[in-house]
Amino acid sequence: MSETTSDTSPVGVSPTSPTSTTAAAQKSTASRVAVASLVGTIIEYYDFAVYGTAAALVLGPAFFPSGNATLSTLAAFLTVAAAFLARPLGVLVFGGIGDRVGRKRALFLSLLLMGVSTVGVGLLPTYETAGFVAPVLLVVLRLLQGVSMGGEWGGAVLLAAEHAPPGRRALYASIPQAGPPLGFLLSSAVILPTLAIAGKDGFAEWAWRIPFLLSTVLIAVGLWVRSRIAESPIFDERSTGAAAPPRFPLGALVKEYPGRLLLGMGAAIGGSSVYYLATVYSLSYGPTALGIPQPTMLAATSIAAAADVVVTMPLAIMADRVGRRPVMLTGAAGCALWALPMFGSLQTGNGVLIAGAFTIGLVLFSMMFVPMAAFLPELFPARLRYTGASATFILAVTLGGGFAPLVATWLTSHWQSPLVLGLYAGVLCLVSLGCVLALPETRDEDFSV
Fold first, then answer.
1. What is the pTM of this model?
2. For a FRET experiment, which of 144, 376, 396, 445 has its CA 20 to 30 Å from that of 150?
């Protein structure tokens, strides 16, 4: 049966074509997925940032009391490192789920695990109440946080990138990439007023639990948002038949792409050290070693993190236009040169100078890391992409960021100068520079295979 229709569009206005309608729908879906990925990533990194800040401020004496403040702080930072060591297990677990069952399912489960672990930390008894059981439980929950983080970043940027319109992968993948600094800012927005209201003693005694317990509300919102997004169209197309993922994606990744795995990890290691030294270690080192007030350090790092958010999308647009490598190479070279002045600013004790130096440093860090959201997934085929992107990033963050506070504590105990932090971060940024040079440009890679 045929039906005759007439064009009733206003004079001078063409009816919307099926092609333009499809493109608009794709863009709308991609935007919703990217925002949903961002919301979940903010919450995950809020939880992680709250723990890192609490470790720098109160967890040492609360769970690892000793007659030496440095040893207590070092023990607290060991729990930070423990979570990073658990991240590869998260890659194994959630990478397998993401490549075999679906990106969406893996992201939902990773967020749920993070929420349970974070709220659990807020409910823990301290060493004074429960003895050695308290630090044991703290380490267990911290390990679960690490497992959760092992599947978060790769899945969030991958889901956004696989929904992205052509030529816009870096832009859409960069939206959840803003989650780490936004999560840090959110944690500071909760911790700073809590610290101001409860006071230093009140915060150390009981108020440190508030940011952890508030995560209950955030997790509920995040799970609701993630339950409503669409699965990756590329996963749906490639999950069956000849392109189906192997039974053990991580093993296949190591066997088939060992070079890209190692070089991708090296490409991200320098930025990881810069970020975690600035946003975690400096919060303890500045006040304890240099006498900088804790609110000053928190404010300085928060300003730098805010700048990180502001430049994220412009840098992503640049990476889509000129390629991933030019932006990352500029950032790596800049970080290698700026690391000394950045951490040397701590010697001044001036909050304005520290904020300015850290802001420049994190902008350069963003030049390294924003394109990574598209670059690392583009290094691997669709059937191994969740595992590949997660493994390269997580190994880099574990080695470059997870151990940064421990290495920095040891370095500053032997050389009483923040310049040693700049030397350490600068060398790792040079490693990243060399690895990016050794990898190919991926902007024009066929992402559907």
1. 0.80
2. 445
Spatial contact of 169 and 374, defined as CB atoms under 8 Å apart: yes
* b/e code 300-331 from CB counts within 10 Å (16+ = b): bbbbbbbbbbebbbebbebbbeebbbbbbbbb
Q: Left if phi > 0, otherwise alpha if psi is -120 to 50, otherwise beta: which for 3? A: beta
Specify the higher pLDDT residue, 68 or 8. Answer: 68
Whole-number Cα distances in Å, 441 to 76, 372, 386: 40, 12, 20
Whether the CB-CB separation of 170 and 374 falls below 8 Å is answered with: yes
The backbone torsions φ and ψ at residue 414, rounded to the nearest 5 degrees and listed phi first, read: -100, -35
Cβ–Cβ under 8 Å, residues 308 and 358: no
The whole-angstrom separation of Cα 162 and Cα 237 is: 11
Bin 38: left if φ > 0, else alpha if -120 < ψ < 50, else beta: alpha
CA distance 106 to 125: 31
* Buried-exposed string 17-36: b where 16+ CB fall within 10 A, e elsewhere: eeeeeeeeeeeeebbebbeb
Q: Are 187 and 48 in contact (CB under 8 A)?
A: no
* Amino acid (1-letter code) at residue 67: G
- CA 31 – CA 52 distance, rounded (Å): 31
pLDDT digits (tens, 9 = 90+) for 95-131: 889 888 888 899 899 989 988 999 999 999 999 899 9
User: How much of the chain exceeds pLDDT 70, in percent?
Assistant: 93
Q: 188 and 309 in contact (C-beta within 8 Å)?
A: no
Q: Which two tokens stand for residue 231?
A: 């699965």
Q: Label residues 92-129 b or e (16+ Cβ within 10 Å = b).
A: bbbbbbbbbebbbbbbbbbbebbbbbbbbbbebebbee
Total number of residues shown for the chain: 449
